[in-house]
Design a protein that fits this description.
four-stranded antiparallel sheet, single chain, six-stranded mixed sheet, alpha/beta, 10% strand, disordered C terminus
Protein backbone atom coordinates (compact mmCIF):
# COMPACT_ATOMS: atom_id res chain seq x y z
CA UNK A 1 0.00 0.00 0.00
CA UNK A 2 2.88 2.34 0.81
CA UNK A 3 4.44 1.63 -2.60
CA UNK A 4 1.10 2.39 -4.27
CA UNK A 5 0.84 5.77 -2.52
CA UNK A 6 4.38 6.65 -3.56
CA UNK A 7 3.63 5.59 -7.13
CA UNK A 8 0.43 7.66 -7.31
CA UNK A 9 2.38 10.71 -6.15
CA UNK A 10 4.08 10.87 -9.55
CA UNK A 11 0.69 11.22 -11.30
CA UNK A 12 -0.18 14.47 -9.49
CA UNK A 13 1.80 16.88 -11.74
CA UNK A 14 0.09 15.27 -14.76
CA UNK A 15 -3.45 15.25 -13.43
CA UNK A 16 -4.90 16.96 -16.52
CA UNK A 17 -3.39 14.51 -19.02
CA UNK A 18 -4.32 11.59 -16.78
CA UNK A 19 -7.99 12.65 -16.59
CA UNK A 20 -8.15 13.19 -20.35
CA UNK A 21 -6.45 9.84 -20.95
CA UNK A 22 -8.92 8.02 -18.68
CA UNK A 23 -11.85 9.85 -20.31
CA UNK A 24 -10.65 8.76 -23.73
CA UNK A 25 -10.23 5.21 -22.43
CA UNK A 26 -13.79 5.28 -21.08
CA UNK A 27 -15.16 6.42 -24.45
CA UNK A 28 -13.18 3.69 -26.25
CA UNK A 29 -14.67 1.08 -23.92
CA UNK A 30 -18.15 2.56 -24.33
CA UNK A 31 -17.90 2.55 -28.14
CA UNK A 32 -16.83 -1.10 -27.96
CA UNK A 33 -20.25 -1.96 -26.53
CA UNK A 34 -22.00 -0.53 -29.61
CA UNK A 35 -21.32 -3.46 -31.95
CA UNK A 36 -23.11 -6.27 -30.01
CA UNK A 37 -26.05 -3.99 -29.14
CA UNK A 38 -26.58 -2.98 -32.75
CA UNK A 39 -26.06 -6.60 -33.85
CA UNK A 40 -28.86 -7.77 -31.57
CA UNK A 41 -31.27 -5.14 -32.94
CA UNK A 42 -30.39 -6.08 -36.50
CA UNK A 43 -30.85 -9.82 -35.93
CA UNK A 44 -34.05 -9.46 -33.89
CA UNK A 45 -35.75 -6.63 -35.76
CA UNK A 46 -34.15 -4.84 -38.69
CA UNK A 47 -33.22 -7.87 -40.84
CA UNK A 48 -36.36 -10.02 -40.15
CA UNK A 49 -38.60 -6.98 -40.76
CA UNK A 50 -36.58 -5.87 -43.83
CA UNK A 51 -35.74 -2.41 -42.44
CA UNK A 52 -32.96 -1.81 -44.94
CA UNK A 53 -32.60 1.91 -44.18
CA UNK A 54 -32.02 1.20 -40.49
CA UNK A 55 -29.46 -1.48 -41.39
CA UNK A 56 -27.54 1.03 -43.51
CA UNK A 57 -27.96 3.77 -40.86
CA UNK A 58 -26.56 1.46 -38.19
CA UNK A 59 -23.61 0.55 -40.40
CA UNK A 60 -22.79 4.21 -41.13
CA UNK A 61 -23.22 5.10 -37.46
CA UNK A 62 -20.79 2.34 -36.46
CA UNK A 63 -18.29 3.57 -39.02
CA UNK A 64 -18.56 7.14 -37.63
CA UNK A 65 -18.02 6.13 -34.02
CA UNK A 66 -15.15 3.82 -35.05
CA UNK A 67 -13.47 6.81 -36.70
CA UNK A 68 -13.92 8.70 -33.42
CA UNK A 69 -12.48 5.71 -31.59
CA UNK A 70 -9.45 5.77 -33.90
CA UNK A 71 -8.63 9.34 -32.85
CA UNK A 72 -9.27 8.50 -29.21
CA UNK A 73 -6.85 5.58 -29.43
CA UNK A 74 -4.23 7.88 -30.97
CA UNK A 75 -4.74 10.30 -28.07
CA UNK A 76 -4.36 7.46 -25.56
CA UNK A 77 -1.22 6.11 -27.24
CA UNK A 78 0.50 9.48 -27.72
CA UNK A 79 -0.41 11.45 -24.63
CA UNK A 80 -0.43 8.36 -22.43
CA UNK A 81 3.16 7.61 -23.39
CA UNK A 82 4.10 11.29 -23.02
CA UNK A 83 2.76 11.15 -19.47
CA UNK A 84 4.71 7.94 -18.80
CA UNK A 85 7.94 9.42 -20.18
CA UNK A 86 7.55 12.57 -18.08
CA UNK A 87 6.96 10.48 -14.96
CA UNK A 88 10.01 8.41 -15.88
CA UNK A 89 12.07 11.61 -16.26
CA UNK A 90 10.91 12.84 -12.85
CA UNK A 91 11.82 9.54 -11.22
CA UNK A 92 15.20 9.60 -12.97
CA UNK A 93 15.82 13.12 -11.67
CA UNK A 94 14.78 12.07 -8.16
CA UNK A 95 17.05 9.04 -8.33
CA UNK A 96 20.00 11.05 -9.66
CA UNK A 97 19.55 13.69 -6.96
CA UNK A 98 19.37 10.89 -4.39
CA UNK A 99 22.53 9.24 -5.73
CA UNK A 100 24.38 12.54 -5.49
CA UNK A 101 23.52 12.71 -1.79
CA UNK A 102 24.38 9.15 -0.81
CA UNK A 103 27.51 8.60 1.29
CA UNK A 104 30.76 7.00 0.16
CA UNK A 105 29.78 3.76 1.90
CA UNK A 106 26.91 3.21 -0.55
CA UNK A 107 29.27 3.28 -3.53
CA UNK A 108 31.71 1.02 -1.71
CA UNK A 109 29.02 -1.67 -1.75
CA UNK A 110 27.16 -1.09 -5.07
CA UNK A 111 28.56 -1.41 -8.57
CA UNK A 112 28.09 1.39 -11.09
CA UNK A 113 26.58 -0.87 -13.76
CA UNK A 114 23.90 -2.14 -11.38
CA UNK A 115 22.98 1.40 -10.38
CA UNK A 116 22.75 2.37 -14.05
CA UNK A 117 20.46 -0.61 -14.69
CA UNK A 118 18.02 0.75 -12.12
CA UNK A 119 18.24 4.17 -13.71
CA UNK A 120 17.46 2.87 -17.22
CA UNK A 121 15.79 -0.55 -17.48
CA UNK A 122 13.79 -0.39 -14.28
CA UNK A 123 12.51 3.13 -14.90
CA UNK A 124 11.45 2.21 -18.43
CA UNK A 125 9.34 -0.65 -17.06
CA UNK A 126 7.85 1.75 -14.50
CA UNK A 127 6.93 4.30 -17.18
CA UNK A 128 5.20 1.60 -19.24
CA UNK A 129 3.21 0.57 -16.19
CA UNK A 130 2.40 4.22 -15.41
CA UNK A 131 0.91 4.66 -18.86
CA UNK A 132 -0.74 1.30 -19.58
CA UNK A 133 -1.64 0.30 -16.03
CA UNK A 134 -4.60 2.59 -15.21
CA UNK A 135 -5.73 2.57 -18.83
CA UNK A 136 -5.79 -1.24 -19.10
CA UNK A 137 -7.46 -1.69 -15.73
CA UNK A 138 -10.05 0.99 -16.51
CA UNK A 139 -10.93 -0.19 -20.04
CA UNK A 140 -10.84 -3.88 -19.16
CA UNK A 141 -12.76 -3.36 -15.91
CA UNK A 142 -15.47 -1.26 -17.51
CA UNK A 143 -15.82 -3.59 -20.52
CA UNK A 144 -15.93 -6.63 -18.26
CA UNK A 145 -18.73 -5.23 -16.09
CA UNK A 146 -20.69 -3.70 -18.98
CA UNK A 147 -20.48 -6.84 -21.11
CA UNK A 148 -21.56 -9.02 -18.17
CA UNK A 149 -24.58 -6.78 -17.52
CA UNK A 150 -25.49 -6.94 -21.19
CA UNK A 151 -25.10 -10.73 -21.19
CA UNK A 152 -27.49 -10.92 -18.24
CA UNK A 153 -30.00 -8.80 -20.16
CA UNK A 154 -29.85 -11.30 -23.02
CA UNK A 155 -30.02 -14.39 -20.76
CA UNK A 156 -29.10 -14.16 -17.10
CA UNK A 157 -29.02 -17.93 -16.44
CA UNK A 158 -26.53 -18.56 -19.24
CA UNK A 159 -24.48 -15.55 -18.05
CA UNK A 160 -24.21 -16.90 -14.52
CA UNK A 161 -23.04 -20.27 -15.83
CA UNK A 162 -20.19 -18.54 -17.67
CA UNK A 163 -19.41 -16.21 -14.77
CA UNK A 164 -19.01 -19.23 -12.49
CA UNK A 165 -15.75 -20.03 -14.33
CA UNK A 166 -14.18 -16.65 -13.48
CA UNK A 167 -13.14 -17.56 -9.88
CA UNK A 168 -11.31 -20.61 -11.27
CA UNK A 169 -9.47 -18.34 -13.68
CA UNK A 170 -8.36 -15.94 -10.94
CA UNK A 171 -7.35 -18.82 -8.67
CA UNK A 172 -5.02 -20.25 -11.32
CA UNK A 173 -3.56 -16.88 -12.26
CA UNK A 174 -2.89 -15.90 -8.65
CA UNK A 175 -1.15 -19.25 -8.13
CA UNK A 176 1.36 -18.59 -10.92
CA UNK A 177 1.62 -14.85 -10.33
CA UNK A 178 3.86 -15.34 -7.27
CA UNK A 179 6.26 -17.45 -9.34
CA UNK A 180 6.30 -14.71 -11.97
CA UNK A 181 7.07 -12.01 -9.40
CA UNK A 182 10.05 -13.92 -8.00
CA UNK A 183 11.32 -14.80 -11.48
CA UNK A 184 11.02 -11.19 -12.69
CA UNK A 185 13.02 -9.93 -9.70
CA UNK A 186 15.77 -12.49 -10.40
CA UNK A 187 15.88 -11.50 -14.07
CA UNK A 188 16.24 -7.80 -13.15
CA UNK A 189 19.14 -8.65 -10.86
CA UNK A 190 20.67 -10.66 -13.72
CA UNK A 191 20.39 -7.83 -16.26
CA UNK A 192 21.93 -5.50 -13.67
CA UNK A 193 24.88 -7.92 -13.46
CA UNK A 194 25.18 -7.87 -17.26
CA UNK A 195 25.22 -4.05 -17.25
CA UNK A 196 27.78 -4.02 -14.46
CA UNK A 197 30.04 -6.45 -16.31
CA UNK A 198 29.66 -4.45 -19.52
CA UNK A 199 30.43 -1.14 -17.79
CA UNK A 200 33.52 -2.62 -16.17
CA UNK A 201 34.82 -4.15 -19.40
CA UNK A 202 34.27 -1.02 -21.49
CA UNK A 203 35.84 1.24 -18.85
CA UNK A 204 38.87 -1.04 -18.72
CA UNK A 205 39.15 -1.70 -22.46
CA UNK A 206 42.64 -0.13 -22.64
CA UNK A 207 43.90 -2.36 -19.85
CA UNK A 208 42.33 -5.38 -21.55
CA UNK A 209 44.07 -4.61 -24.84
CA UNK A 210 47.36 -3.80 -23.13
CA UNK A 211 47.41 -7.19 -21.42
CA UNK A 212 45.86 -8.97 -24.44
CA UNK A 213 43.17 -10.40 -22.21
CA UNK A 214 40.22 -10.04 -24.58
CA UNK A 215 39.44 -13.75 -24.25
CA UNK A 216 39.35 -13.47 -20.44
CA UNK A 217 36.89 -10.54 -20.60
CA UNK A 218 34.74 -12.47 -23.07
CA UNK A 219 34.66 -15.43 -20.68
CA UNK A 220 33.70 -13.20 -17.74
CA UNK A 221 30.95 -11.55 -19.76
CA UNK A 222 29.64 -14.88 -21.07
CA UNK A 223 29.43 -16.22 -17.51
CA UNK A 224 27.26 -13.25 -16.51
CA UNK A 225 25.31 -13.53 -19.75
CA UNK A 226 24.53 -17.20 -19.08
CA UNK A 227 23.21 -16.31 -15.62
CA UNK A 228 20.94 -13.78 -17.31
CA UNK A 229 19.70 -16.39 -19.79
CA UNK A 230 19.04 -18.80 -16.91
CA UNK A 231 17.14 -16.15 -14.93
CA UNK A 232 15.09 -15.11 -17.96
CA UNK A 233 14.39 -18.77 -18.75
CA UNK A 234 12.92 -19.19 -15.28
CA UNK A 235 10.86 -16.05 -15.81
CA UNK A 236 9.59 -17.28 -19.17
CA UNK A 237 8.81 -20.68 -17.64
CA UNK A 238 6.61 -18.99 -15.03
CA UNK A 239 5.08 -16.76 -17.71
CA UNK A 240 4.42 -19.76 -19.96
CA UNK A 241 2.57 -21.61 -17.20
CA UNK A 242 0.67 -18.46 -16.31
CA UNK A 243 -0.52 -17.62 -19.81
CA UNK A 244 -1.11 -21.20 -20.97
CA UNK A 245 -3.32 -22.03 -17.99
CA UNK A 246 -5.23 -18.73 -18.16
CA UNK A 247 -5.80 -19.04 -21.90
CA UNK A 248 -7.06 -22.59 -21.37
CA UNK A 249 -9.73 -21.33 -18.96
CA UNK A 250 -10.84 -18.66 -21.43
CA UNK A 251 -11.06 -21.32 -24.12
CA UNK A 252 -13.31 -23.28 -21.74
CA UNK A 253 -15.62 -20.23 -21.73
CA UNK A 254 -16.27 -20.72 -25.42
CA UNK A 255 -16.97 -24.43 -24.97
CA UNK A 256 -19.46 -23.68 -22.17
CA UNK A 257 -21.21 -21.08 -24.34
CA UNK A 258 -21.35 -23.53 -27.23
CA UNK A 259 -22.75 -26.44 -25.19
CA UNK A 260 -24.95 -24.53 -22.71
CA UNK A 261 -26.20 -22.17 -25.42
CA UNK A 262 -26.96 -25.11 -27.69
CA UNK A 263 -29.01 -26.76 -24.93
CA UNK A 264 -30.85 -23.49 -24.24
CA UNK A 265 -31.57 -23.06 -27.95
CA UNK A 266 -32.74 -26.68 -28.26
CA UNK A 267 -35.16 -26.17 -25.35
CA UNK A 268 -36.41 -22.84 -26.73
CA UNK A 269 -34.98 -20.99 -23.75
CA UNK A 270 -33.22 -18.57 -26.14
CA UNK A 271 -33.85 -17.68 -29.79
CA UNK A 272 -31.27 -17.83 -32.57
CA UNK A 273 -30.81 -14.03 -32.74
CA UNK A 274 -30.10 -13.70 -29.00
CA UNK A 275 -27.88 -16.77 -29.14
CA UNK A 276 -25.82 -15.22 -31.97
CA UNK A 277 -25.61 -11.94 -30.08
CA UNK A 278 -24.65 -13.81 -26.91
CA UNK A 279 -21.72 -15.49 -28.66
CA UNK A 280 -20.47 -12.10 -29.92
CA UNK A 281 -20.93 -10.54 -26.46
CA UNK A 282 -19.13 -13.39 -24.71
CA UNK A 283 -16.05 -12.58 -26.75
CA UNK A 284 -16.38 -9.03 -25.42
CA UNK A 285 -16.47 -10.49 -21.91
CA UNK A 286 -13.46 -12.75 -22.51
CA UNK A 287 -11.33 -10.04 -24.21
CA UNK A 288 -10.95 -7.83 -21.12
CA UNK A 289 -10.26 -10.92 -19.01
CA UNK A 290 -7.40 -11.77 -21.37
CA UNK A 291 -6.32 -8.13 -21.31
CA UNK A 292 -6.08 -8.22 -17.52
CA UNK A 293 -4.18 -11.49 -17.68
CA UNK A 294 -1.70 -10.09 -20.21
CA UNK A 295 -1.35 -7.00 -18.06
CA UNK A 296 0.04 -9.10 -15.20
CA UNK A 297 3.47 -9.41 -16.89
CA UNK A 298 3.71 -5.66 -17.36
CA UNK A 299 2.52 -5.10 -13.81
CA UNK A 300 5.14 -7.47 -12.40
CA UNK A 301 7.92 -5.77 -14.40
CA UNK A 302 6.80 -2.29 -13.38
CA UNK A 303 6.10 -3.18 -9.75
CA UNK A 304 9.47 -4.91 -9.37
CA UNK A 305 11.20 -1.95 -11.01
CA UNK A 306 9.44 0.52 -8.71
CA UNK A 307 10.36 -1.56 -5.67
CA UNK A 308 14.03 -1.42 -6.71
CA UNK A 309 13.67 2.33 -7.36
CA UNK A 310 12.29 2.78 -3.83
CA UNK A 311 15.19 0.79 -2.38
CA UNK A 312 17.56 3.49 -3.60
CA UNK A 313 15.23 6.32 -2.59
CA UNK A 314 15.02 4.87 0.94
CA UNK A 315 18.79 4.74 1.41
CA UNK A 316 20.06 6.97 4.16
CA UNK A 317 21.76 9.97 2.58
CA UNK A 318 24.46 12.29 3.80
CA UNK A 319 23.01 15.12 5.81
CA UNK A 320 24.70 18.13 4.22
CA UNK A 321 23.26 20.32 6.95
CA UNK A 322 23.71 17.99 9.91
CA UNK A 323 25.72 20.59 11.84
CA UNK A 324 24.24 23.99 12.62
CA UNK A 325 27.34 26.02 11.82
CA UNK A 326 28.62 27.34 8.51
CA UNK A 327 32.33 26.62 8.33
CA UNK A 328 34.20 29.96 8.02
CA UNK A 329 37.46 30.55 6.19
CA UNK A 330 39.76 28.36 8.28
CA UNK A 331 43.25 29.04 9.54
CA UNK A 332 43.92 25.35 9.11
CA UNK A 333 44.68 23.91 12.57
CA UNK A 334 43.92 20.16 12.49
CA UNK A 335 43.57 17.92 15.51
CA UNK A 336 42.86 14.18 15.70
CA UNK A 337 41.75 13.33 19.23
CA UNK A 338 41.80 9.56 20.02
CA UNK A 339 40.18 8.63 16.69
CA UNK A 340 38.94 5.09 15.99
CA UNK A 341 37.55 3.96 12.63
CA UNK A 342 36.69 0.81 10.72
CA UNK A 343 34.83 0.00 7.51
CA UNK A 344 31.84 -2.36 7.56
CA UNK A 345 33.77 -5.17 5.93
CA UNK A 346 36.97 -4.86 8.00
CA UNK A 347 38.31 -4.69 11.50
CA UNK A 348 39.83 -1.56 13.03
CA UNK A 349 41.56 0.61 10.42
CA UNK A 350 42.47 3.39 12.86
CA UNK A 351 43.03 2.62 16.53
CA UNK A 352 43.36 5.53 18.95
CA UNK A 353 45.05 7.94 16.53
CA UNK A 354 45.95 11.36 17.94
CA UNK A 355 48.02 14.15 16.36
CA UNK A 356 47.82 17.86 15.65
CA UNK A 357 48.93 20.04 12.75
CA UNK A 358 49.36 23.80 13.24
CA UNK A 359 47.98 26.02 10.49
CA UNK A 360 50.22 26.57 7.48
CA UNK A 361 52.34 23.48 8.19
CA UNK A 362 52.96 20.52 5.90
CA UNK A 363 52.78 17.04 7.40
CA UNK A 364 53.65 13.86 5.50
CA UNK A 365 51.98 10.52 6.23
CA UNK A 366 54.09 7.46 5.46
CA UNK A 367 53.68 3.78 6.14
CA UNK A 368 52.85 0.45 4.52
CA UNK A 369 49.78 0.07 2.31
CA UNK A 370 46.58 -0.44 4.28
CA UNK A 371 48.01 1.25 7.34
CA UNK A 372 45.34 3.97 7.42
CA UNK A 373 46.93 6.93 5.58
CA UNK A 374 44.17 7.42 2.99
CA UNK A 375 41.52 6.76 5.63
CA UNK A 376 42.82 9.76 7.63
CA UNK A 377 42.48 11.87 4.48
CA UNK A 378 38.89 10.71 3.98
CA UNK A 379 37.86 11.43 7.56
CA UNK A 380 38.75 15.13 7.48
CA UNK A 381 36.10 16.09 4.85
CA UNK A 382 33.77 13.51 6.46
CA UNK A 383 33.53 11.14 3.53
CA UNK A 384 33.30 8.70 6.43
CA UNK A 385 32.54 9.43 10.08
CA UNK A 386 34.74 8.35 12.96
CA UNK A 387 33.53 5.47 15.12
CA UNK A 388 34.97 7.06 18.22
CA UNK A 389 36.92 10.21 19.03
CA UNK A 390 36.91 13.69 17.49
CA UNK A 391 38.44 15.58 14.62
CA UNK A 392 38.75 19.32 15.12
CA UNK A 393 39.52 22.16 12.73
CA UNK A 394 40.57 25.42 14.37
CA UNK A 395 39.40 23.90 17.66
CA UNK A 396 35.87 23.09 16.47
CA UNK A 397 34.56 19.54 16.00
CA UNK A 398 33.96 19.00 12.28
CA UNK A 399 30.52 17.51 13.09
CA UNK A 400 29.35 20.96 14.15
CA UNK A 401 29.75 22.26 10.59
CA UNK A 402 27.43 21.57 7.67
CA UNK A 403 29.06 19.10 5.29
CA UNK A 404 28.76 21.47 2.36
CA UNK A 405 30.53 24.37 4.08
CA UNK A 406 33.17 22.04 5.58
CA UNK A 407 34.13 20.51 2.24
CA UNK A 408 34.45 23.93 0.61
CA UNK A 409 37.43 24.53 2.91
CA UNK A 410 39.24 21.33 1.89
CA UNK A 411 41.03 20.61 -1.39
CA UNK A 412 42.03 17.07 -2.42
CA UNK A 413 44.51 16.05 -5.11
CA UNK A 414 44.60 12.28 -5.64
CA UNK A 415 46.74 9.88 -7.61
CA UNK A 416 43.78 8.71 -9.68
CA UNK A 417 42.51 11.95 -11.19
CA UNK A 418 38.90 12.00 -12.31
CA UNK A 419 37.99 14.40 -15.09
CA UNK A 420 34.54 14.84 -16.56
CA UNK A 421 33.76 14.58 -20.26
CA UNK A 422 33.80 18.06 -21.76
CA UNK A 423 36.36 20.82 -22.23
CA UNK A 424 39.47 21.86 -20.34
CA UNK A 425 37.62 24.99 -19.24
CA UNK A 426 34.69 22.98 -17.87
CA UNK A 427 36.98 20.82 -15.76
CA UNK A 428 39.04 23.65 -14.28
CA UNK A 429 35.89 25.66 -13.50
CA UNK A 430 34.65 22.66 -11.50
CA UNK A 431 36.74 24.13 -8.67
CA UNK A 432 34.66 27.31 -8.70
CA UNK A 433 31.76 27.50 -11.13
CA UNK A 434 31.50 31.27 -10.70
CA UNK A 435 35.17 32.04 -11.41
CA UNK A 436 36.03 34.78 -13.90
CA UNK A 437 38.14 34.39 -17.05
CA UNK A 438 41.07 36.05 -15.27
CA UNK A 439 40.81 33.61 -12.36
CA UNK A 440 40.66 30.70 -14.79
CA UNK A 441 43.86 31.81 -16.53
CA UNK A 442 45.56 32.49 -13.17
CA UNK A 443 44.77 28.95 -11.97
CA UNK A 444 46.08 27.41 -15.21
CA UNK A 445 49.33 29.36 -14.92
CA UNK A 446 49.81 28.38 -11.27
CA UNK A 447 49.29 24.72 -12.21
CA UNK A 448 51.94 24.95 -14.98
CA UNK A 449 49.48 23.98 -17.72
CA UNK A 450 48.65 27.37 -19.25
CA UNK A 451 51.31 27.17 -22.00
CA UNK A 452 50.13 23.70 -23.01
CA UNK A 453 46.51 24.88 -23.20
CA UNK A 454 47.51 27.82 -25.44
CA UNK A 455 49.29 25.39 -27.80
CA UNK A 456 46.00 23.63 -28.52
CA UNK A 457 43.93 24.82 -31.53
CA UNK A 458 40.85 25.39 -29.37
CA UNK A 459 42.69 26.35 -26.19
CA UNK A 460 40.49 26.18 -23.10
CA UNK A 461 37.60 24.92 -25.27
CA UNK A 462 39.47 21.73 -26.23
CA UNK A 463 37.45 18.56 -25.59
CA UNK A 464 39.39 16.12 -23.41
CA UNK A 465 37.30 12.99 -24.09
CA UNK A 466 35.75 10.59 -21.62
CA UNK A 467 37.56 10.89 -18.27
CA UNK A 468 40.28 12.97 -19.97
CA UNK A 469 41.41 10.11 -22.19
CA UNK A 470 43.00 12.57 -24.69
CA UNK A 471 45.39 13.91 -22.02
CA UNK A 472 48.53 12.43 -20.50
CA UNK A 473 48.72 11.53 -16.83
CA UNK A 474 50.69 14.67 -16.04
CA UNK A 475 48.30 16.91 -17.95
CA UNK A 476 45.32 15.43 -16.11
CA UNK A 477 47.08 15.93 -12.79
CA UNK A 478 47.86 19.58 -13.59
CA UNK A 479 44.22 20.17 -14.56
CA UNK A 480 43.16 18.81 -11.19
CA UNK A 481 45.65 21.12 -9.48
CA UNK A 482 44.29 24.11 -11.41
CA UNK A 483 40.86 23.09 -10.19
CA UNK A 484 42.10 23.26 -6.58
CA UNK A 485 43.69 26.68 -7.17
CA UNK A 486 40.25 27.96 -8.21
CA UNK A 487 38.66 26.40 -5.15
CA UNK A 488 41.23 28.12 -2.90
CA UNK A 489 40.76 25.89 0.18
CA UNK A 490 42.33 26.40 3.61
CA UNK A 491 43.37 22.76 3.98
CA UNK A 492 45.08 20.72 1.28
CA UNK A 493 45.22 16.92 1.07
CA UNK A 494 47.69 15.37 -1.39
CA UNK A 495 46.98 11.64 -1.56
CA UNK A 496 50.00 10.25 -3.47
CA UNK A 497 49.38 12.94 -6.07
CA UNK A 498 52.63 12.35 -8.02
CA UNK A 499 53.27 8.65 -7.44
CA UNK A 500 52.12 7.56 -10.92
CA UNK A 501 54.21 10.13 -12.83
CA UNK A 502 57.64 10.07 -14.39
CA UNK A 503 60.43 12.17 -12.90
CA UNK A 504 60.25 14.99 -15.45
CA UNK A 505 56.51 15.37 -15.11
CA UNK A 506 56.74 15.05 -11.35
CA UNK A 507 59.20 17.91 -11.21
CA UNK A 508 56.75 20.21 -13.01
CA UNK A 509 53.83 19.11 -10.88
CA UNK A 510 55.81 19.28 -7.66
CA UNK A 511 56.49 22.92 -8.40
CA UNK A 512 52.75 23.49 -8.85
CA UNK A 513 51.98 21.59 -5.65
CA UNK A 514 54.56 23.58 -3.68
CA UNK A 515 52.92 26.76 -4.95
CA UNK A 516 49.53 25.35 -4.01
CA UNK A 517 50.68 24.52 -0.47
CA UNK A 518 51.84 28.06 0.30
CA UNK A 519 49.81 29.54 3.15
CA UNK A 520 47.76 26.37 3.57
CA UNK A 521 47.82 23.45 5.97
CA UNK A 522 48.83 20.41 3.92
CA UNK A 523 48.64 16.70 4.55
CA UNK A 524 50.74 14.67 2.11
CA UNK A 525 50.46 10.92 1.70
CA UNK A 526 54.00 10.24 0.58
CA UNK A 527 55.21 7.83 -2.07
CA UNK A 528 58.58 9.31 -2.93
CA UNK A 529 61.16 10.83 -0.62
CA UNK A 530 61.06 14.18 -2.44
CA UNK A 531 57.49 14.73 -1.29
CA UNK A 532 58.35 14.34 2.38
CA UNK A 533 61.79 15.95 2.65
CA UNK A 534 60.34 19.44 2.81
CA UNK A 535 57.56 18.44 5.21
CA UNK A 536 57.51 20.10 8.62
CA UNK A 537 56.74 16.76 10.24
CA UNK A 538 56.54 13.12 9.18
CA UNK A 539 54.00 10.78 10.80
CA UNK A 540 54.57 7.05 10.41
CA UNK A 541 51.34 5.04 10.42
CA UNK A 542 51.18 1.25 10.51
CA UNK A 543 48.34 -1.12 11.50
CA UNK A 544 46.07 1.84 12.21
CA UNK A 545 48.39 3.38 14.80
CA UNK A 546 50.97 6.16 14.88
CA UNK A 547 54.34 4.50 15.28
CA UNK A 548 56.68 7.49 15.02
CA UNK A 549 56.68 11.26 14.48
CA UNK A 550 59.42 13.71 13.63
CA UNK A 551 61.61 15.09 10.85
CA UNK A 552 63.44 12.87 8.36
CA UNK A 553 66.75 13.06 10.22
CA UNK A 554 65.09 12.53 13.61
CA UNK A 555 63.24 9.44 12.38
CA UNK A 556 66.37 7.93 10.82
CA UNK A 557 68.13 8.30 14.16
CA UNK A 558 65.29 6.46 15.90
CA UNK A 559 66.27 3.37 13.93
CA UNK A 560 62.63 2.23 13.84
CA UNK A 561 59.78 1.74 11.36
CA UNK A 562 60.59 4.83 9.29
CA UNK A 563 64.21 3.83 8.78
CA UNK A 564 63.10 0.39 7.67
CA UNK A 565 60.61 1.91 5.20
CA UNK A 566 63.28 4.28 3.98
CA UNK A 567 65.73 1.47 3.34
CA UNK A 568 63.12 -0.72 1.63
CA UNK A 569 61.24 1.89 -0.36
CA UNK A 570 62.52 5.43 -0.27
CA UNK A 571 66.29 5.00 -0.63
CA UNK A 572 66.06 3.58 -4.16
CA UNK A 573 63.70 6.33 -5.34
CA UNK A 574 65.94 8.88 -3.59
CA UNK A 575 69.03 7.67 -5.51
CA UNK A 576 67.12 7.71 -8.79
CA UNK A 577 65.91 11.22 -8.07
CA UNK A 578 69.39 12.48 -7.12
CA UNK A 579 70.91 10.96 -10.28
CA UNK A 580 68.17 12.60 -12.35
CA UNK A 581 68.77 16.01 -10.75
CA UNK A 582 72.54 15.66 -11.21
CA UNK A 583 72.04 14.86 -14.91
CA UNK A 584 69.76 17.87 -15.28
CA UNK A 585 72.41 20.10 -13.71
CA UNK A 586 75.12 18.73 -16.02
CA UNK A 587 72.97 19.35 -19.08
CA UNK A 588 72.21 22.87 -17.89
CA UNK A 589 75.90 23.63 -17.28
Amino acid sequence: MDLLKRFIKYYKPHKKIFILDMSAAFLVALIGMGYPIITRYMLNDFIPNRKLELVITCGVSLLAIYIIRMFLRYFIQYYGHIMGVRMQAEMRSDMFNKLEKLPYTYYDEHETGKIMSRMTNDLFDISELAHHGPENIFIAGFTLIASFIYLCIINWILSLIIFACVPLLFFITSHFRHQMRVAMLESKVAIADVNSSLESSISGIRVTKAFTNIKKEQEKFEETNKKFVKARSSAFDAMGKFFASSQFITDVFNIIVLIAGGIFLYNDMIDIADYSTFIISVNMFIAPVNQLINFVEQFQNGATGFKRFCEIMDEKEENLYEGDKICPKLSGDIEFDHVFFNYKSSKGILNDVSFSIPHGKKVALVGPSGGGKTTICHLIPRFYDVVKGNIKLDGTNIKEYTLESLRKQIGIVQQDVFLFGGTIKDNILYGNLEASEEELIYAAKKANIYDYILSLPKGFDTDIGERGVKLSGGQKQRLSIARIFLKNPSILILDEATSALDNTTELLIQQALDELCKGRTAIVVAHRLSTIRNADEIIVISDGKIKEKGSHDELIKMNGTYKLLYELQFRESDLVEQNYLNNELQITN
